[in-house]
Specification:
Distance between the termini: 44 Å
Radius of gyration: 18 Å
Largest sheet: none
Shape: globular
Number of helices: 8
Order of helices and strands: HHHHHHHH
Structural class: mainly alpha
Length: 204
Amino acid sequence: MNLQLFGGAFVTLLVITDPPGMVPIFVALTGAMQPRERHRVAWQAVALALGVIVVFAVAGQTLLAYLHVSLPALQAAGGLLLILVALELLTGKSDGPDQQSTSNVALVPLGTPLLAGPGAIVATMLFVQQAGGAGDYLAIAVAIVAVMAAVWTTLRFSGIIVRVLRPGGIEVLTRIAGLLLAAIAVQLIADAVVAFVDAHLHRV
């Protein structure tokens, strides 16, 4: 196994997924849930993110080319999804989620686009393009699994924060998380617009 490639892929994906930064958003979205439900959401989100990243690692270029979708378009779509979730958090409409919303929270925005977002997808595709043999592919696979394990561990024990904050603190954290999500969404869309403009200028 290529340890240098493993280290590069692990650190890069860990920084992009940002497990500590995910905690306030995760707590804001799941603070009203029972611990068992919260643990299930964490597992579902990480499983989905792992599946999405693996799919794009194996067939990302082919899939995007077949659908005629560019990476900036994928990035802009992720930004729009995050804006919708951020508005719900800021207006308080996401308080007291029921069973149906539990699944939605695990899939969107936690699984994607927060964990398996454009950044993680692009980084993984670039590492796969650099790979030159079975050892390199193994290093990338182990790095992806290790990062997802770190994310799951962080989310799994976020219940400690929920017990400390109590309902009032969670409500405040929800509004802050909504603001952070809105900022992330705007940045994603802005980067996508810049990429679109650059691509157009290069064609001209």
